[in-house]
């Protein structure tokens, strides 16, 4: 991590700003979220003072409603699940009792495992979460109506109601799901879980496949797959383990692997090309991001994976001698020069139909907040480049795009030299500039926001809207749809 002399000051300043904003929001009545208007149409952003960025290239597409964009019928194998959201008193393994908001009485909710190509059908029922719930399938490329964003792709599901999601799991990988109604509050209260899409044919071979959620329930209880004090998993010497790490917390976690060399084989669920062996490096996983690690169990029998900042986020595999921990100042993993290149024709200097620059403030985008940020307008078939700049100071921002995978083109204007990196998020620390590219091939209305959900709550969120796409749903205090 780069240390800036003014970093501590900036972090404190940002914290104070957030605390003030949240306090003001709370004082304004707890049913009213920060800066949320009475009613807003996220498709045309009517009711806000901004204007759309970019001139419309050519005539607008034929109007189509997000609500009608569903998965086409197919012969894909169907995997069905039912998830019931409820207010639940849970008892942690350390004896502490917590009022959590759960799916099926659990937090994280049940791990959903499907195969690449499956048709996933999930019936969500809200038993008694008064302010409504949804499920957003974080990182999954799916039709607009299934994205689970309250007020954009559906209405929040109120107590006693149900909503059934249906989508094809096109891309294998490590994903997660969480409520996108009042997401900053609801994910932290427990409304989230893992979604693992197993590959038809894996690029890597392994004997064990584990997925692990790093969570801070109610911002207090440090839990690893719901367990306080860390998680212990079985693995025998000589076995190869794929460990899928999901950071469901808002802040970056620097994860160390003690006891074995390892590879980062996947980021945000997307496999890397020929990743090399690493040892003694901290791997920074931003809020909402997923990293899959692959390692072979040593003869000494034990591997420990743990967070530098919060060692209670810990996974041990196997039994044996406790491995030596990483030095706190060990180098950090750099994905910009890791693995081998593979030509996919997507380069920083290719021809883009539209290029946008998003300057990230401490908790805003281009100086605006939430619905005041003009949406990025795209048209189906176009290639889009987005340049993120995090130059004014503050916490790291894991910027997440719904409905698409993008390619990370460059960091600080230097093109990546290793494996292509496809992702649904890119994390920027103070001083960072990244360029990403995506093809506008999934018509809809898609959020683009910081996955530090505290930042999203105070306005670090915006839309990527396809020309001509409409929605019957509304965000605001009138509908009660407040996605954050
Ligand atoms: Cu942020």
UniProtKB/TrEMBL annotation:
Any Pfam family from its record, for instance, is Cu-oxidase_2
Q: Does the keyword Repressor apply?
A: no
Alphabetically ordered keywords of this record? Copper, Metal-binding, Oxidoreductase
Q: Which Gene3D superfamilies match?
A: Cupredoxins - blue copper proteins (2.60.40.420)
Q: List the residue ranges forming a coiled coil, or say none.
A: none
What's the protein called, per UniProt? Multicopper oxidase family protein
Specify the Plastocyanin-like domain's residue ranges: 88-201, 213-299, 359-465
> What Gene Ontology terms describe what this protein does at the molecular function level?
copper ion binding; oxidoreductase activity
Stored InterPro entries:
Cu-oxidase-like_N (IPR011707), Cu-oxidase_2nd (IPR001117), Cu-oxidase_C (IPR011706), Cu-oxidase_fam (IPR045087), Cu_oxidase_Cu_BS (IPR002355), Cupredoxin (IPR008972)
PROSITE patterns cross-referenced by the UniProt entry: MULTICOPPER_OXIDASE2 (PS00080), PROKAR_LIPOPROTEIN (PS51257)
Asked whether the keyword Metal-binding is assigned, the reply is yes
């Amino acid at each position: 991590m780069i240390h800036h002399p003014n970093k501590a000051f900036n972090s404190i300043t940002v914290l104070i700003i957030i605390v003030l904003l949240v306090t003001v929001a709370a004082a304004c009545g707890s049913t009213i979220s920060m800066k949320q208007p009475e009613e807003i149409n996220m498709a045309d952003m009517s009711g806000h003072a901004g204007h759309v960025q970019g001139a419309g290239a050519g005539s607008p597409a034929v109007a189509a409603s997000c609500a009608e964009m569903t998965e086409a019928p197919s012969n894909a194998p169907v995997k069905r699940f039912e998830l019931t959201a409820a207010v639940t008193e849970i008892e942690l393994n350390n004896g502490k009792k917590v009022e959590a908001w759960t799916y099926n009485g659990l937090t994280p909710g049940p791990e959903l495992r499907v195969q690449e190509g499956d048709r996933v059908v999930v019936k969500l029922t809200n038993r008694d979460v008064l302010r409504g719930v949804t499920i957003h399938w974080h990182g999954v490329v799916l039709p607009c109506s299934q994205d689970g964003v309250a007020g954009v792709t559906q209405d929040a599901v109120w107590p006693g109601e149900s909503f059934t999601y249906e989508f094809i799991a096109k891309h294998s990988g490590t994903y997660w799901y969480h409520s996108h109604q009042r997401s900053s509050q609801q994910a932290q209260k427990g409304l989230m879980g893992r979604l693992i899409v197993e590959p038809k044919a894996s690029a890597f071979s392994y004997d064990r496949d584990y997925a692990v959620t790093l969570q801070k329930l109610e911002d207090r209880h440090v839990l690893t797959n719901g367990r306080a004090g860390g998680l212990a998993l079985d693995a025998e010497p000589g076995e190869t383990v794929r460990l899928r790490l999901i950071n469901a917390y808002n802040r970056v976690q620097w994860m160390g692997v003690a006891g074995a060399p390892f590879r980062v084989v996947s980021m945000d669920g997307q496999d890397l090309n020929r990743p090399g062996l690493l040892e003694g490096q901290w791997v920074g996983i931003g809020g909402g991001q997923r990293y899959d690690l692959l390692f072979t169990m040593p003869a000494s029998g034990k591997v420990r994976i743990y967070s530098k900042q919060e060692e209670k986020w810990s996974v041990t595999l196997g039994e044996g001698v406790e491995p030596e921990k990483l030095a706190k100042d060990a180098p950090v993993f750099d994905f910009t020069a890791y693995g081998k290149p593979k030509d996919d024709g997507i380069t920083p200097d290719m021809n883009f139909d539209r290029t946008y620059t998003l300057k990230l403030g401490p908790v805003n985008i281009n100086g605006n907040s939430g619905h005041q940020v003009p949406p990025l307008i795209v048209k189906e078939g176009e290639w889009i480049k987005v340049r993120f700049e995090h130059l004014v100071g503050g916490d790291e921002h894991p910027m997440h795009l719904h409905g698409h995978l993008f390619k990370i083109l460059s960091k600080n204007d230097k093109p990546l030299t290793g494996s292509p990196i496809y992702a649904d998020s890119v994390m920027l620390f103070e001083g960072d500039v990244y360029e990403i590219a995506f093809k506008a091939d999934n018509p809809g209305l898609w959020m683009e926001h910081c996955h530090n959900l505290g930042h999203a709550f105070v306005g670090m969120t915006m839309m990527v809207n396809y020309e001509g796409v409409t929605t019957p749903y509304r965000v605001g205090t009138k509908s009660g749809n407040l996605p954050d």
